[in-house]
Design a protein that fits this description.
By secondary structure, the chain is α+β, with helices and mostly antiparallel strands. It has helices at 3-10, 17-32, 39-46, 51-61, 67-79, 143-146, 149-155, 166-180, 198-207, 237-242, 308-317, 319-331, 342-362, and strands spanning 86-95, 105-109, 114-128, 131-139, 187-191, 211-216, 221-224, 235-236, 246-252, 258-269, 283-291, 294-295, 298-301.
Length: 381
C-alpha cells in the first residue's frame, strides 16, 4: 500500500484537507529523515520552502484534531492483522531539559537505575507475529501538574484530565482497547514491578474479566493456596517463591524459537481481590531462575490452570514491548517532540505510531528514502 493511501485512511477523521496534507507530510518525514526527527529536519526532507517547518509545528502543537479518533483507526488497522488477542502495556521515559514540557517530573528509570527529569508515558501494544505495534498512549500527570491552574493553562491540559496513578492509567488504556477492538477474551500483559498499588490494577482487571500476566513487586502479599490455617498470614511474593523448588519449562518466543528455562512457581491467593471473606480464585505466581540465586521479574497470572510454558511464554514475549519502544526512539523520533503542550504530545505520539505501523505492516519491501517533495504548494493526499 502506498503511504498516501495509508495516511488517508488513518487520518481520515481530520476534517480539513490542509490537516490531512500536513499529516502526510509529517508521516513521510518520519519515514525518510535520518537521525533526529526535529520539525525543522522533517520539513527540510519534504520541501525547501521555509514556511513548511512552521506549518508542521502548527499542525502538531496547535491544530485541533482528535488523537483518540486517529488511534482508534490505527487500532482497527493493526487488529485486522493481529494474531492473538494479547494486549501489552509498556512505559516510555522521555528525558527533557527544564520543567516546562507537559508532565515533566523526576521519575525513576528502571532500565538505567536512576532518577530522570522526564515525561512518563504508558502505551498499549498489539502483537502481529513477533512485532508489537503501539495503538494508544497516556501521559502521566503528577498532582503538581493537575493541581496548578497556570501549568494546566500553559500546557493546554483538558479539564477532563485529572491525577491518575500508573495503575489507573493502565486500566484506562484497557478500557479504551476494549471499546475499540472486537476481542472478548484478551490477555493483558504488563510490567508493574515497581507499582506499589499493583493490587488495584489486578482487582480492576479481574472486575473487567480480563485475564492477565503482570509483573509485580516482590513485596506483594499473597496467601498459598490450600492454607487451611484459621487466620492465615500473608507472605511476600518473593518469600513464597523462594521456598519453592525449580521446575523446567519450554518458553516459546513470538518468532517460534524455543528455549528451556527453570522457574519457581506457586498457586496463591491475593488478599483483597475478592469480596467478602472468600479467598477468591487461585493465581499462579512465577519467576524465571536466570542464574543460581538470581531471578527475573515476579509475575502473577489469572491463567492459573494453564500450563507454565504458556504463561511463561506470554511473560517472556513482553520484552517485545521494550524492543518496540527502543525502535520508536531510535528510528521514528519518539523522543524528538519539541513542543510543550498536552495535545501536541499526543499528536506527535499518534504520528510516530502511524509511521512505525506503516513501516512494519504496509510499506513496500524496499521503501524509497527520497521522492517527490510535498511543500506548501505541493500535492497532498
Amino acid at each position: 500500500m502506498s503511504l498516501a493511501d495509508f495516511s488517508s485512511t488513518i487520518f481520515r477523521s481530520l476534517r480539513r484537507a490542509d490537516q490531512r496534507k500536513w499529516a502526510y507530510t509529517y508521516l513521510n518525514g518520519l519515514l525518510i529523515t535520518h537521525g533526529k526527527k526535529s520539525v525543522r529536519r522533517l520539513a527540510a526532507a519534504a520541501s525547501s520552502d521555509p514556511s513548511v517547518a512552521q506549518a508542521l509545528r502548527q499542525f502538531v502543537s496547535l491544530s485541533p484534531w482528535d488523537f483518540d479518533a486517529v488511534m482508534e483507526e490505527l487500532t482497527h488497522w493493526v487488529e485486522g492483522r493481529a494474531s492473538e488477542p494479547v494486549w501489552n502495556l509498556g512505559r516510555v521515559i522521555l528525558p527533557k531539559r527544564g520543567n516546562r514540557s507537559v508532565g515533566v517530573d523526576r521519575h525513576f528509570d528502571l532500565e538505567s537505575g536512576r532518577s530522570v527529569n522526564c515525561q512518563l508515558g504508558l502505551g498499549s501494544f498489539l502483537s502481529v507475529g513477533a512485532v508489537q505495534f503501539p495503538v494508544d498512549w497516556s501521559l502521566y500527570l503528577s498532582p503538581a501538574w493537575v493541581q496548578d491552574p497556570d501549568r494546566r493553562s500553559d500546557a493546554r491540559i483538558p479539564d477532563s484530565e485529572q491525577y491518575r496513578p500508573l495503575w489507573a492509567l493502565a486500566l484506562r488504556l484497557v478500557d479504551r482497547l476494549a471499546a475499540r477492538t472486537s476481542s472478548s477474551s484478551p490477555v493483558v500483559v504488563a510490567d508493574m514491578g515497581d507499582e506499589p498499588d499493583v493490587r488495584y490494577l489486578l482487582s480492576g482487571l479481574a472486575k473487567r474479566r480480563c485475564d492477565f500476566v503482570v509483573a509485580v513487586p516482590p513485596h506483594l502479599p499473597v496467601l498459598p493456596v490450600g492454607n487451611m490455617a484459621a487466620t492465615p498470614l500473608p507472605v511476600s511474593a518473593r518469600a513464597r517463591l523462594s521456598a519453592q523448588n525449580t521446575e523446567p519449562a519450554v518458553v516459546t518466543a513470538p518468532d517460534g524459537r524455543q528455549r528451556v528455562a527453570s522457574f519457581q512457581t506457586s498457586l496463591v491467593h491475593v488478599p483483597g481481590l475478592s469480596q467478602g471473606h472468600s479467598p477468591g480464585p487461585p493465581y499462579r505466581l512465577f519467576t524465571e531462575m536466570r542464574e543460581p540465586s538470581v531471578t527475573g521479574p515476579l509475575w502473577i497470572t489469572s491463567l492459573a490452570h494453564h500450563g507454565l510454558p504458556e504463561v511463561a511464554s506470554l511473560a517472556a514475549a513482553h520484552t517485545g514491548t521494550a524492543d518496540a519502544v527502543a525502535f520508536l526512539e531510535r528510528d521514528f523520533g519518539l523522543l524528538d517532540f519539541e513542543g510543550r503542550s498536552f495535545p501536541g504530545w499526543h499528536h506527535h505520539m499518534a504520528l510516530v505510531s502511524a509511521a512505525y505501523t506503516y513501516r512494519h505492516l504496509d510499506a513496500p519491501a524496499a521503501p524509497a528514502r527520497s521522492g517527490k517533495r510535498c511543500g506548501a504548494g505541493g500535492q497532498a493526499p
